[in-house]
Amino acid sequence: MNDDSKEKFQIESLEVKDLWGRQDKRIVFNERVNILIGRNASGKTTLMNILYYVVTADLFRLSEIEFSSATIKLKSFSSRARRTIRVERDDENISVRLGNSPSAKAPLRFASRDDAYFERHFHRTIRDDGRETLDEIRTLVPTAWLPVSRRLSIPDPDDDSSQSSQWRNMPRRWRQNNSSLESVDHRLSELSELLHKYRFQIEQTLSSRYKEFEQRVLEIVLFDEERDKLPMTFPSKEVLGDASK
Question: Can you give the residue ranges of the Endonuclease GajA/Old nuclease/RecF-like AAA domain (predicted)?
Fold first, then answer.
């Protein structure tokens, strides 16, 4: 089944235990707009990171944050269905479970490492049934991450890294104004490009279905089974036998 056809959910609440080893946090979300207000270093960004990493099933990034458990409750946009995602973390492992599905578990000894090797090895330790759980979680909540308070780091134009490549591929109007370029501009530009691609895909699908519809209408109008069937144009074997005598 295509992920786009699966039921989508909105976030109802987030509960985090032992954040930084000393705080419990709980947020009940409004269905439309939510604004978090608090002192610097009170945990606003960290809570949003936890929320984002849970609904995108990014266990490696979650393992870099100190907490003992996180619970996210979801409710469907279109029905009364509800789902719960639970993340548990101890001194050795981090695991995530969706309802009663098999948990995805990985050891923390590979966490908090910058080397890409450790991140790959971290993901390899997750069992196949756990990977299926992670894949299902990723289809539940539509997300768009816009860190509006952070500026983009401008890479060296001669750098061949992927980050520099992404920068070169950005629209020229953004690159020309790099002195005040905010990451939200970049993200909105990416979203706009994705929307254009999505619209093009929809138009292609509609065009294909319209042609199929036209063909079926023509077949119905032009073909009549009783009128258009071929008559028997060859004599039967019995007739041929009689003629040869």
Answer: 11-133
